[in-house]
Specification:
The structure holds two protein chains of two kinds. Helices cover about 50% and strands about 15% of the residues of chain A. Chain A is of the alpha/beta class. Chain B has a four-stranded mixed sheet, covered by helices on one side. Chains A and B meet through α11, α12, α13, α22 and α24 of A and α1, α2, α3, α5 and β4 of B.
Chain lengths: ~900, ~375
């Protein structure tokens, strides 16, 4: 068993580079098995890279990684041991699906690991029971609090009974009570599953104190390893945080001194920010409930609480971004008015996500804000120089903020927020994800602003040691302020040792009524029955269906996306069915008759009787003829010269001339055709012979419009529109579906679970094929009953054709989405790569064989080219298998080719 | 003054961000160069390379003359087929036209027995079927008449029709398809660029930041209009001069500066509707679907693909409200017919009016955007 293996992971000379950044720098390390191993260090030092390599989620660039005696560079070995590893990536519930319920999420993971239904149900009820999530099993993941989401993440990890549990910053941004419960839960699980190894990355040093063995990391290197006590004795430091700072190389430590906070000199007690019963509701959900507080000038006021407890929403109401549902906010003793520009010059705001333009340099960001606050050029220059100097930004001045480390970026953000010397500074979690040293430096600046420049600072945080630095704090939980006082006052009021304990005790009071007590650990039944390990075959329908079910549930729960994808095509079909037509009629023409004889009128009579033409007022002269054509008033002008009648009577050749507007060539050609047809009719008209002395034509030409006797374009266009819409919509929906997983991070599940690429792709494709088939049935009904286009040919062939076609088109979208990494690029790329070939080169208007070579190639490489003949053939030509099989085969070839390309392009590991 | 300054600086920021997005930049370049060239060469709206076959049961001089008269570029070289294959070949879509010359055709013509020649047309290939059957009739009539006048000296009919095509005498479709291609690209790019710019600001949290600063929604929206508009105007200008005039050597009749004025006005509308959609959609996928719903009808029904005249009148009236229709109208007027401002001003006004309307909607929705972004 694993307990006997001395090391869970052996890492040798591993170096990882992302662009210019070195994430891991020649790391060699052995992680002991069967215990809690902690990776400590600030953000961006390589902890996550190391964990994702161990989990098999990331490709190894150089070096060797042996996990559970298997070489992680070998895909076969990786596939073999991935069921023994569970990986919970950074970011709360990043690998979970927000639109799925708690139970559905766990079921999804159970299916990926090939569990039988009975086993899965047993495991799920046990996990839900032991984590206390049982009462919430039907709640959507997006509606869970941070702590609950974490537990759900843990459940999803433990469903397949792993030997190694890898947790990347599992408690960041969670309130202290939930954090404490989380670690208790891990302890319980470890107690029951003897020998399970747990690897944890954390930024909280107090958590790390409890681990068995630690790895201190900085800048891609390992600084030191050992038990917490070892590390402290090595450095003769009293706390782990100090020990870590002591381990840092001399250079990084330089200039660091313990943070001193001078007491606040109270100059005036006039309140600068006042909140009275502030309430904010989103629909039925109350995000902030009757919050009250007063902040005085020069005070540092802290908002402390977990993610999603209403901190940001309250701040947004104070900045005027959100109108409060109830209550009021006063700034500078005046009610907040979002249209009042003058007060905005006095406020600086830094939102949760670093509010910088990442494509701009530090200088450009600062200058942009100086311009927007209308600081005179001279003063702006001095001010920027001053800020750059005091924030230590000189060496980064010309760099794009995208390339800067998080700590520096956050300093730039602050500099940007105070470039106009505001009196109030509202900072929404400015330090999350920043290492302790950078955080201290940041606070030095804040303290200087508060104490020396009397700037009022309103800051939110989930770090307790930061909360302690504030003059006063409010503890928040689920939209309520639990208590407001100085940090020392709060500790004293609860009679506990630390601020964290005080917060926990407040939280316990608040949650006592709401939540059920954590369930006692139940005897583990599932473990006893779990002896045969499930098989992990090369292809598993169950894993494929896991993705299908997941995707379908998500689609069904996004009414907007579902509505668009079902009825968008219907709407467009309606519009196009009536609108896209090549029948040219209602053509406006006018006449310039310079002859005015019975003969000229007889000629014009032929034209005037036509259903295609509409006559406009007659033209007076040549100049008017041109100007009316120019303005688009008429599309054709017929001119009969003087002596027309005379010429006919005398048997001399008589000429009529027509001038047709050539701005739209197709229309011009059609008009020419109509006019010539009319002329032939005139010549053949027996009443004319008498005057025209013409002979009947030597031969008769019979034009037979096959398939469509009336030559009415609706019979060709409606089937073509079906082809067009069934091409565009499934492709776009599919393209977004895969990129979405990439952007939201749930693609990790592909990397670390036994699901194969083909299962992943096919599984995701099925629901969209189903949606497209539903689309088709709606459009078929419309064709039959709205447009009265009968289905003359074989319905089964059409159905088979549609099925292959939408499969090919979703595969087309899939391929595009594999190349792109953002939703916008996928959207834009799919639009460009489908709309043009579909409308121009796929035979909708013109047969592909008539196109120019380049366009023909584009057309032949596009599935719609082969579906148009099937659709038109089945509807209007009345054809069946005998005539359509070649197109069916050609269409069917796309499916494996596109699928194969997709599988080859899709990576099973992150680079 | 301050407003103008804010709009200017925000726009500069927008331009800088845009220039850093190489993928987007690549798409813009593609859309206005390669895509335009492809469309110019597609010949999708004229009779070009139509596939044709003959069932020559006469095998006479006249029947061969007729077959030889069907020439590229209008028709592909005629293929000889036998009668029993006609149905299956046409079913497979192999030939759009099949001309059946009956036995003894020549003899009957000479004997004045008015024999009938039959043209089978695949009436599901709408563009070619319509134009091509006219051409084919014309060609056959001319050939038969020619044949007769050569052999017997029969006079041509005494009343003749001379059809000339104004503004585009050779009826080249490249003129039309390229300019319409540019128009469609303008619509697509302006909506996507502006809409995505809004969504991106929101996703990155910078929208909150802007709304907290002393900036009015009008200024933020206006900055996006001018910056994205400028990018596309430059692209259109370059495309007209470099790709259309120089590379494809297509003559342009009218005043390009006047057309560019129209483009700018249209861009105001297109970016405004983009911003409006950006405030409406909550995520990129939603923007994508909204975009398809708005763009496809604007594109397909603007008169750039099929003539406006062929729509039912109620739909034509609805499309009157779409600036894309007006854009196509004034583009045709200016670029082909060489019309001046005196002719196109009503269209300019209509586009600006609808643009202003959407711009107003977008600004009204700006505040609620901030509320959604939690």
């Amino acid at each position: 068993m694993t307990a006997r293996e001395s090391s869970v992971a052996h890492i040798e000379n591993v170096t990882q580079r992302y662009g210019k950044m070195v994430a891991l720098d020649d790391v060699t390390i052995d992680l002991p098995a069967g215990c809690m191993v902690g990776l400590i260090g600030p953000d961006g030092v390589g902890k996550s890279s190391l964990l994702s390599i161990i989990a098999g989620a990331r490709q190894i660039q150089s070096g060797r990684v042996i996990v559970l005696d298997n070489d992680m560079a070998d895909p076969r070995h990786r596939a073999e041991i991935c069921p023994r590893i569970a990986y919970m990536p950074q970011g709360l519930g990043k690998n979970l699906y927000a639109d799925l319920s708690v139970r559905e999420n766990i079921e999804f993971f159970g299916r990926l690991f090939g569990q039988s239904r009975a086993k899965r149900d047993a495991m799920i009820s046990e996990l839900l029971w032991s984590t206390g999530l049982a009462p919430f099993s039907d709640r959507m993941a997006k509606k869970l609090s941070g702590g609950m989401r974490q537990k759900l993440g843990l459940c999803c990890c433990l469903i397949h009974d792993p030997d190694v549990l890898i947790l990347d910053e599992p408690t960041t941004g969670v309130d202290p009570l939930s954090r404490r419960r989380f670690w208790e839960l891990i302890d319980q699980i470890r107690a029951r599953r003897n020998g399970m190894s747990v690897l944890v990355a954390t930024a909280y040093m107090d958590e790390a104190e409890e681990f068995n063995w630690l790895v201190a990391m900085n800048a891609g290197k390992v600084l030191g390893t050992g038990t917490p006590t070892d590390l402290k004795t090595q450095t003769s430091a009293s706390s782990l945080e100090d020990a870590f700072i002591a381990l840092l190389p001399e250079q990084a430590r330089r200039g660091h001194k313990a943070l001193q906070i001078p007491p606040r000199r109270i100059i005036s007690a006039d309140p600068v920010i006042v909140a009275r019963d502030l309430t904010c509701r989103f629909g039925e959900f109350t995000a902030v409930d009757k919050v009250n507080f007063t902040i005085e000038r020069g005070e540092i006021f802290g908002f402390v609480g977990s993610n999603g407890c209403g901190k940001s929403t309250t701040m947004k109401m104070l900045t005027g971004l959100l109108p409060p549902s109830e209550g009021e906010a006063l700034l500078f003793s005046k009610p907040l008015d979002s249209s009042d520009m003058s007060s905005r010059y006095r406020v600086g705001y830094m939102s949760q996500s670093f509010s910088l333009y990442t494509e701009l340099t530090v200088q450009q960001n600062l200058e942009l804000h100086a311009h927007l606050f209308h600081i005179p050029a001279q003063r702006a220059k001095a001010r920027i120089a001053e800020l750059v100097d005091s924030f230590g930004l000189k060496e980064y001045f010309d760099q794009r903020t995208l390339d800067l480390p998080l700590g520096i970026r956050q300093r730039v953000s602050l500099a940007v927020a105070i470039v106009h010397e505001p009196e109030i500074l509202i900072l929404d979690e400015p330090t999350s994800g920043v290492d302790p040293l950078a955080r201290d430096r940041f606070w030095e600046i804040l303290i200087n602003l508060s104490r020396n420049q009397e700037v009022t600072i309103f800051i939110s945080t989930h770090f307790m040691n930061e909360a302690e630095r504030c003059d006063r704090i409010s503890l928040m939980d689920s939209g309520h302020v639990l208590a407001t006082d100085t940090p020392a006052g709060l500790v004293k009021a609860r009679g506990v040792a630390t601020l964290e304990d005080a917060f926990i005790s407040y939280l316990e009071d608040a949650t006592r009524q709401r939540a059920t007590a954590p369930a006692p650990a139940s005897p583990n039944k599932a473990d006893e029955t779990a002896s045969p390990t499930p098989q992990h075959p090369l292809f598993s329908l169950q894993r494929l269906l896991a993705y299908t079910i997941r995707e379908a549930l998500e689609l069904l729960r996004d009414p907007i996306r579902l509505g668009f994808s079902l009825f968008g095509t219907t709407l467009l079909m309606l519009v196009f069915g009536f609108g896209v037509s090549t029948d040219v009629n209602n053509l406006s023409f006018a006449v310039l008759d310079q002859d005015q004889t019975p003969e000229s009128r007889a000629y014009l009579e032929e034209l005037r009787g036509s259903a295609y033409f509409i006559e406009k007022p007659v033209i007076a002269n040549e100049a008017e003829l041109l100007s009316r054509l120019k303005s688009g008033d008429i599309k054709a002008a017929i001119e009969i010269p003087p002596n027309f009648g005379l010429d006919i009577k005398r048997g001399r050749p008589a000429w009529v001339s027509a001038l047709v507007d050539g701005a739209m060539p197709f229309r011009a050609e059609t008009i020419r055709g109509y006019l010539q047809g009319m002329h032939q009719l005139y010549l053949a008209d027996p009443t004319i012979y008498t005057t025209a002395l013409a002979a009947p034509p030597p031969s008769n030409i019979e034009v037979r419009f096959k398939y469509n006797q009336d030559f009415d374009s609706i019979y060709a266009m409606v089937p073509s529109n079906i082809a067009l819409l069934l091409g565009l919509f499934p492709a776009i929906l599919m393209a977004l579906a895969i990129v979405r997983e990439k952007e939201l991070g749930s693609i990790t599940n592909l990397y670390v679970t036994p699901v194969t690429r083909i299962e992943f792709l096919l599984g995701k494709q099925l629901p969209y094929v189903a949606v497209a088939m539903a689309n088709f049935s709606l459009m078929l009904l419309m064709a039959l009953f709205v447009f009265h286009v009968p289905l003359k040919g074989s319905f089964p062939i059409l159905l088979v054709g549609v099925l292959i076609y939408v499969t090919a088109m979703t595969a087309y979208g899939m391929l595009i989405s594999i190349f792109t990494s953002t939703q916008i690029a996928a959207l834009f790329g799919t639009a460009i790569l489908t709309v043009l070939p579909a409308t121009q080169f796929a035979g909708m208007m013109t047969p592909v064989s008539s196109l120019a070579p380049g366009a023909q190639i584009m057309g032949r490489a596009f599935p719609m080219t082969y579906f148009v003949p099937i659709s038109v053939g089945a509807f209007t030509k009345g054809l069946g298998f005998a005539d359509l099989w070649t197109d069916l085969v050609a269409l069917a070839v796309f499916v494996p080719v596109l699928a194969l390309l997709s599988v080859l392009m899709l990576r099973k590991q992150e680079r | 003054m301050r407003k103008a300054e804010n709009i200017f600086w925000l726009g500069i920021k927008e331009l800088r961000s845009f220039l850093h997005d190489f993928v987007l930049l690549g798409f813009v370049v593609y859309a206005f160069s390669l895509a335009v060239v492809m469309q110019a060469r597609s010949n999708s709206q004229e009779l070009h390379n139509a596939s044709i076959a003959f069932v020559d049961e006469d095998n006479s001089e006249l029947s061969r003359r007729i077959a030889h008269a069907f020439l590229p570029p209008y028709f592909q070289l005629p293929q000889q087929i036998v009668e029993k294959d006609v149905v299956s070949l046409m079913n497979k879509g192999k030939y759009t036209f099949v001309i059946d010359i009956p036995p003894d055709f020549e003899q009957y013509v000479l004997a004045r027995r008015h024999p009938a020649i039959q043209i089978d047309v695949d009436a599901t290939a709408m563009v070619q079927a319509g134009l091509g059957s006219g051409y084919a009739q014309q060609i056959i009539t001319t050939e038969v008449a020619d044949f007769l006048s050569h052999s017997e000296g029969v006079k041509l009919s005494s009343v003749n029709l001379d059809v000339r095509i104004a503004f585009n005498p050779n009826v080249t479709t490249a003129w039309f398809t390229t300019v319409m291609g540019i128009i469609n690209n303008v619509t697509m790019l302006a909506i996507i660029l502006a809409g995505a710019a809004i969504i991106r600001e929101r996703e990155h949290g910078t929208m909150d930041h802007l709304l907290v600063m002393p900036l009015a929604p009008f200024e933020i929206a206006m900055s996006k209009v001018w910056a994205n508009g400028l990018v596309i105007t430059v692209a259109v200008g370059l495309s007209l001069y470099l790709v259309i005039r120089w590379m494809l050597a297509i003559p342009i009749a009218g005043s390009i500066p006047l057309f560019m004025v129209g483009v700018v006005i249209y861009l105001f509308f297109a970016t405004a509707i983009g911003i409006f959609l950006g405030t409406l959609a909550r995520s990129m996928p939603q923007l994508g679907l909204l975009f398809m719903l708005v763009y496809l009808p604007m594109n397909m029904l603007s008169g750039s693909n099929t003539p406006l005249e062929s729509m039912p009148s109620w739909l034509a009236t609805v499309m009157e409200a779409s600036p894309s229709t007006h854009f196509v109208l004034f583009a045709q007027s200016i670029l082909y017919r060489g019309a001046g401002l005196d002719v196109v001003w009503p269209q300019f006004l209509a586009v600006a009016g609808v643009g202003g309307l959407f711009f107003g909607f977008a600004i009204l929705r700006f505040r609620s955007v901030a509320a959604q972004s939690t």
